[in-house]
Each structure stands twice: as structure tokens, then as C-alpha cells.
Amino acid sequence: MKKSFLLGLGAAAASAFVISKKLTESQKDRIAMKIDETLLNLRDTAVKYDKYAHDYLDENRDTINNFKQSISDRFNHLKDESVVSDAFSSLKQATSDLKTYIQDSKDDIDQPFEDHDDVMQDDIFIDDPNFGEEDELKTVTFFPEGWKEPEKSLDDNNEPQL
Predict the structure, then answer these.
(1) Is 41 contained in some domain?
(2) Taxonomically, which superkingdom (predicted)?
(3) N or C, which end of the chain has less CB nearby within 10 Å?
(4) Range of 36's domain?
């Protein structure tokens, strides 16, 4: 970005130099007067809007001060109100409880298990009288009423084609 800025600045300077050499004295005078006129107009406009701002502030100073005072009163009322202080104390208590719980949980995790078999159980029990170790339940496919089971496909998966 710096290189492109410098290139642009150099190009602008070079073009300004070339143009200034090609302009006649009368053209240079007209351009200088136009620039001076534009700068004066901008200065007048800035002074005019500064005067407008000061006039507005002078006319509405009481309103602005009342607004500032009402906002200050509201914040002081909220600061003094017991609901906010109760909420902060409750938040502090909940935070300390959470820290204690996390520390206790961390201590429990760090302690080694004395008897791993009593704590962890890897067995999965399925309480179904129809399920035996030798038997494997077959997948049953249900079709809407009036449909027939499609013929078996000849692909490698032996899946039916619909």
C-alpha cells in the first residue's frame, strides 16, 4: 500500500509539473484565483456551521443539562438499588460455588481408583428373552400396504432394488 501511495503521489506531482509548464500565465492566474475562492468559501462555510452549533448549544443548554442530570440520577438510582447489588452478590456466590465444584471434581479425577472393577462396568446387558448368544436378530423390512417385496438385485451387496 505504501508503494502504491508513493507511486500515485509521484504521478500526481509529475502531471502537475507537466501541466504547470504547459499553462500560460493567464491560465495559472485563473487557476490560482479559483483555488483561493474555493478555500475562502470552505472557510466561510465552516465558520457558519460553527456559529450554528454554538447558537444551538446556547439555546438548549438547560435542556441538555436536564438530560445529563436525569441520566446521572438514573444510574445513581440503579447503583444504589438493592436488586442490582443482590444480583452482583448472587453472581459472586455462584462463581465461588462453581470454582469449588470444579476444584472438587478435579481432585476426584486426580485420585486413582482403588478397585477399578467396582467403579467401572464394561458389560452390556440386554434383557430380552428372545435374544441369545447364538441367535442374531434378523432385520425385518416393512412395506406399505399393497406393495410387494422387490426382487433381489444381482449386485455385490444383494440388496433389493426399488
Answers:
(1) yes
(2) Bacteria
(3) N
(4) 12-59
If the chain, 162 residues long, is cut into consecutive pieces of 10 residues, what is the mean pLDDT of each piece?
83 85 83 92 96 92 90 78 77 91 77 56 62 61 68 57 52
Residue 122, classified by CB atoms within 10 Å of its CB into exposed (0-12), middle (13-18) or buried (19+), is exposed
- Candidates 72, 92, 69; CA nearest to 80 is 72
Q: Return the pLDDT at 48.
A: 96
Q: What's the Cα-to-Cα distance from 16 to each of 27, 28, 92, rounded to whole Å? A: 14, 12, 67
Separation between Cα atoms, residue 42 and residue 35, nearest integer Å:
11
Model confidence over 45-64: pLDDT tens digits?
999 999 999 999 899 999 98
* 148 residue type, one letter: K
Give how many domains the chain has, as a whole number.
Answer: 1
* Residue 109 domain flag: no
Assigned domain for 42 exists: yes
Domain assignment of residue 110, yes or no: no
Spatial separation of the C-alpha atoms in residues 114 and 108, rounded to whole Å: 12
